[in-house]
Amino acid sequence: MGSALRDQASKLGVPVAVLSSRTVVSSIVQICASSGEPSPKVLLNAEQRKKLSSLLEVAQYLLAHSMFSRLSFCQELCEVQNSLLLEAVWRLHVQNIVSLPELWESHADTQSTVAWLFRDLCLLCEQMETQHTDIAQTMLSDFVQLFVLRGFQKNSDLRGVEPAHVARVAVTVLQRMLVCELSVPSPRLGNS
Question: pLDDT digit string (tens) for 78-100?
Answer without folding.
Answer: 889 889 999 999 999 999 999 99
